[in-house]
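User: Design a sequence. Structure:
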């Protein structure tokens, strides 16, 4: 099944305008900061449908309505609109699993738990292998790590939002357990299958990050994992196509974009918010460069009409 983008600008006399990081929504008379607008646009504009007429290949095409021109679509991206053409690795972070808390604690936030969430910035070159950065590790290998999740990326641009939301004057490095803290692209600017070169290494975007309860445990905010998912400020994972040494200060250069229709933001929308749209689930699952776990989950949804519960992932706690 082919996938193509359609835009809704032909159904509006005026399209929203971007200026100084804000978007004006003429239809609803609202103004949104771009970071908040990404979530608004995903929630209200995206929909998928099967087009009755076959595409050029003779196959039915699934059209993903992404509203007005936006990040991840062909043409001018939000990155270009915001003048962010360079992606920089501003902090490289690693850490091995450690045990925290106490077995006899009464408060769930103080109970013993083991995690690789706590990471520290590293200066100088670090070897990036197929499944990990040297010196990095995960405690729960069932849900973390592996070839499709070799590197956890989080945009540094989100830190200001979370500092305000959490009431923390300055978040430390790797506050979200990420390996790469970057500057220059957000979830709407990065697409599944994007290939970046950093140093001699080649990496590829495999899926959005799905926040879990360990984020909540780290910051002692009961619904923080839910907030991260709801706002779309999730970050994403990279698989490693070619190993090599990487270090903070390097730039990530976009080498290839095979699936401009599937930005991380759109993938988040399909997985978490458009659960009744089985055509969208099937279409995203057919993206060959999406991680295996996401493809399996979406194909199961498309076949059964049922979505797996995220409660354990988002609200779980140490036993």
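Assistant: Done.
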């Amino acid at each position: 099944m082919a996938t193509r983008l359609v835009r809704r600008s032909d159904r509006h006399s005026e399209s929203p305008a971007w200026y100084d990081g804000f978007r004006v929504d003429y239809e609803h008379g609202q103004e949104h900061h771009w970071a908040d607008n990404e979530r608004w646009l995903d929630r209200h504009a995206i929909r998928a449908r099967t087009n009755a007429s076959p595409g050029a290949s003779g196959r039915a095409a699934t059209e993903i309505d992404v509203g007005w021109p936006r990040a991840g679509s062909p043409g001018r991206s939000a990155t270009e609109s915001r003048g962010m053409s360079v992606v920089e690795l501003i902090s490289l972070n690693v850490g091995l699993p450690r045990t925290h808390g106490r077995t006899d604690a009464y408060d769930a936030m103080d109970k013993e738990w083991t995690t690789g969430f706590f990471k520290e910035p590293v200066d100088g070159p670090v070897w990036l292998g197929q499944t990990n950065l040297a010196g990095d590790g995960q405690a729960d290998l069932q849900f973390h790590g592996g070839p499709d999740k070799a590197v956890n990326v989080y945009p540094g641009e989100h830190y200001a939002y979370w500092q305000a939301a959490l009431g923390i004057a300055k978040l430390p490095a790797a506050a979200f357990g990420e390996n790469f803290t970057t500057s220059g692209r957000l979830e709407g600017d990065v697409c599944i299958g994007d290939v970046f070169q950093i140093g001699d290494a080649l990496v590829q975007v495999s899926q959005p990050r799905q926040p879990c309860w360990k984020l909540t445990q780290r910051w002692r905010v009961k619904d923080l994992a839910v907030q991260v998912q709801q706002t779309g400020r999730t970050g994403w994972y990279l698989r490693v196509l070619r190993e090599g040494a990487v270090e903070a200060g390097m730039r990530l250069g976009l080498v290839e974009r095979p699936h401009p229709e599937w930005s991380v933001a759109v993938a988040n929308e399909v997985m978490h918010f458009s659960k009744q749209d089985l055509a969208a689930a099937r279409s995203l699952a057919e993206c060959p460069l999406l991680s295996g776990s996401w493809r399996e989950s979406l194909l199961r949804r498309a076949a059964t009409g049922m979505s797996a519960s995220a409660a354990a992932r988002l609200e779980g706690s140490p036993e």
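The longest strand covers residues 47-54. The chain is about 25% helix and 25% strand.
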